[in-house]
Specification:
The chain has about 400 residues and is α/β, with parallel strands linked by helices. It has a single domain, classed as Alpha-Beta Barrel (TIM Barrel). About 45% of the residues lie in helices and about 10% in strands. The protein contains 14 helices and 10 strands. The strands form 2 sheets. Strands 1-2-3-4-6-8-9-10 form an 8-stranded parallel beta sheet. Helix 2 packs across helix 9, helix 7 runs parallel beside helix 8 and helix 8 crosses helix 9. The model has no long low-confidence stretch (mean pLDDT about 95). It binds 6-deoxy-beta-L-fructofuranose and manganese (II) ion (MN). The site of manganese (II) ion has 5 residues, from loops. Keywords: Isomerase, Manganese, Metal-binding. GO terms for molecular function: L-rhamnose isomerase activity; metal ion binding. InterPro entries: L-rhamnose_isomerase, Rhamnose_iso-rel, Xyl_isomerase-like_sf, Xyl_isomerase-like_TIM-brl.
C-alpha cells in the first residue's frame, strides 16, 4: 500500500498524532552491564535533569509527554515539586516503578523472602510507592520482582507464591480508585533456577486473583527465545488484562536495546495486534513505555530514535488493509492473508511521519533537530560537576 487513499491517510495520521509513548527516567542516566558501566558526558545528576531530558524528547517528537520514575533512583524530598517542575517542562510523571531488587536484605527474595521481616520491609516499599503516586498524580504502580532461586530445593516454590500473593494483595488494597497495579514478568535473571513471576501466565493468574485494577506488563526482552509475543498481546487484550509494555529489543536475553532495533518485524506484529484490538487509543488504557539501557550510544538521540521506531511500526500496522485481511482469513487464503500484512510492513512510512511532524509544528527529522539544537553542548557544560545518576547497582 504505497499510496494510501485520503480517508486511510486521515485515519492513520490522526491515530499517530494521538499516540503516547512514556520514556523511562533511568534510560537518561548511566547504565551498563555487570562488566562495565561507561559514563557519558552530560548525563543527568538528579531526577530534575532526567525530566528535562525527557521533555526535550517530547519537544522534538510530540508523542512522549510522560516520564516513568524508579524509586529510589528518583527519590526526592518533594514529589509534588518534582511534578510541578515536570509540568513546567511540558511533561507529566508517569508510572512509579518500585525497586525491591537492590537491597542487601533481598538476597533470598523481597516479598517472597523466607524471613517475614524482610517481606514486611519490601511490602512497605511498595506502599511507599503508592504514597508517591498520590503526590505525583501517577496512575500506575509498576512492579517487577527479581525474586527467585538459583538451586533446586533452595526454597518452596508454592510457599513463595503464597507470599507473593499476600504482598500483591496488600499493595492492591492500598490503591486509590483511579490507580492500577501493573505486574511485570521475566523468564530469568538475576535468578537462574526459578523466578517467582517468570511468564505471562503467572502474572495473569495473580492479576485475575487481585481484581480489575491489576494488569500485566509485557517487557519485550523478558521471554524465552522464539516466544510469540504478539500471541500474548492478543490473548491479554482479549482478556482485558494487558496494562502496558516495556518496549526494548534484544538479540539474546534482556539486552534492553532500542525498541525495533533488533527485530522491527516483531514490533510491527505486536502493534498489529494492538491496532486489531483497538487498543492504540490513549483511553484504551495501555501504557506504552520504553525500558531501555543505552550503554554505549548517546542516550537522548537513542530515545528519540526509539520513539520513532515505535511510530514507524505503528504506522505500518495502521496501514494493514483490515477488510482485505479478514476476507482472505475467512476464505482460508493463507498466502493472500500473509501478503496483506507484509504489504503494510513493507510500506515506507517515513515520509508520512515526517509530514505529520511538520503538520504538528515539529521538525520532520527529530534526530537532526536534536543535533542542531545545541542541547547536548549545553547540558555537557552545565552538568560537568557533581555525581552522575545511574542504577547504583
Ligand atoms: C527488569 C526491568 C524492570 C525495571 C528494570 C529497570 O529487567 O525490565 O522493568 O524495573 O528493568
Ligand atoms: Mn522492564
Amino acid at each position: 500500500m504505497t499510496h494510501p487513499d485520503a480517508p486511510t491517510r486521515q485515519r492513520v495520521t490522526q491515530a499517530l498524532r494521538n499516540q503516547r509513548i512514556e520514556t523511562p527516567s533511568w534510560a537518561y542516566a548511566n547504565s551498563g552491564t555487570r562488566f562495565k558501566v561507561f559514563p557519558q558526558e552530560g548525563v543527568p545528576r538528579d531526577p530534575y535533569e532526567k525530566i528535562a531530558d525527557a521533555a526535550m524528547v517530547h519537544r522534538l517528537t510530540g508523542v512522549a509527554p510522560t516520564v516513568a520514575l524508579h524509586i529510589p533512583w528518583d527519590r526526592v524530598d518533594d514529589y509534588a515539586d518534582l511534578a510541578r517542575y515536570a509540568t513546567d517542562q511540558g511533561v507529566t510523571l508517569g508510572a512509579i516503578n518500585a525497586n525491591v531488587f537492590q537491597d542487601n536484605d533481598y538476597k533470598l527474595g523481597s516479598v517472597t523472602n523466607p524471613d517475614p521481616g524482610v517481606r514486611r520491609k519490601a511490602i512497605d516499599h511498595l506502599l511507599e510507592c503508592v504514597d508517591i503516586m498520590d503526590r505525583t498524580g501517577s496512575r500506575d504502580l509498576k512492579l517487577w520482582f527479581s525474586d527467585g532461586t538459583n538451586y533446586p530445593g533452595q526454597d518452596d516454590i508454592r510457599a513463595r507464591q503464597d507470599r507473593l500473593a499476600a504482598a500483591l494483595r496488600e499493595a492492591y488494597d492500598r490503591l486509590g480508585d483511579d490507580q492500577r497495579l501493573l505486574l511485570e514478568y521475566k523468564l530469568f535473571e538475576p535468578a537462574f533456577y526459578t523466578t517467582d513471576v517468570p511468564d505471562w501466565g503467572t502474572a495473569y493468574a495473580h492479576c485475575l486473583e487481585l481484581g480489575p485494577k491489576a494488569q500485566v506488563v509485557i517487557d519485550t526482552g523478558h521471554h524465552a527465545p522464539g516466544t510469540n509475543i504478539e500471541f500474548i498481546v492478543a490473548f491479554l487484550l482479549r482478556a482485558g488484562k494487558l496494562g502496558g509494555f516495556d518496549f526494548n529489543s534484544r538479540f539474546y536475553a534482556d539486552d534492553d536495546l532500542m525498541v525495533g532495533a533488533a527485530d522491527p518485524f516483531q514490533l510491527f506484529r505486536i502493534m498489529h495486534e494492538i491496532v486489531r484490538g483497538d487498543a492504540l487509543r490513549p483511553d484504551a488504557g495501555i501504557a506504552f513505555m520504553l525500558d531501555q539501557c543505552h550503554n554505549i550510544e548517546p542516550k537522548i538521540p537513542a530515545i528519540i530514535r526509539s520513539v520513532m521506531n515505535v511510530q514507524e511500526a505503528t504506522a505500518k500496522a495502521l496501514l494493514v488493509d483490515a477488510d482485505a485481511l479478514a476476507a482472505a482469513q475467512r476464505a482460508g487464503d493463507v498466502l493472500t492473508a500473509n501478503a496483506v500484512l507484509m504489504d503494510a510492513y513493507h510500506t515506507d512510512v517515513r515520509p508520512m511521519l515526517a509530514e505529520l511532524r511538520a503538520d504538528m509544528g515539529l521538525d520532520p527529522d527529530p534526530i537532526a533537530a536534536y543535533a542542531r539544537s545545541g542541547y547536548f553542548a549545553r547540558i555537557r557544560a552545565e552538568r560537568a560537576g557533581g555525581q552522575q545518576a545511574g542504577w547504583g547497582a
